[in-house]
Amino acid sequence: MHAQDFRRLFVRYKILALLLALAAIWIFFHVATGGAFISARNLSNLLRQTSITGMLACGMVFVIIAGEIDLSVGSLLGLLGGVVAVLTVNLQWSSWSAVLLVLLLGLAAGLFNGFIVTRLRVPSFIVGLGGMLAFRGVLQGITHGATIAPVPADLVYLAEGYLPPWPSSLLATGAFAVLVALTLLRRRRRKAQSIPQAAAWLDVLKLAVAGAVLAIFTSMLNRYSGIPLPVLLLLALLVIFSYVASQTVLGRHIYAVGGNVEASRLSGIRVSGVKMVVFGLMGLMCAFAGIINTARLAAGSPSAGTNGELDAIAACFIGGTSMRGGAGTVHGALIGALVMASLDNGMSMMDVDNYWQLIVKGAILVIAVWVDVLSGAKRD
Question: Could you tell me the sign of the dihedral formed by the alpha carbons of 220, 167, 234, 368, in that order?
Answer without folding.
Answer: positive
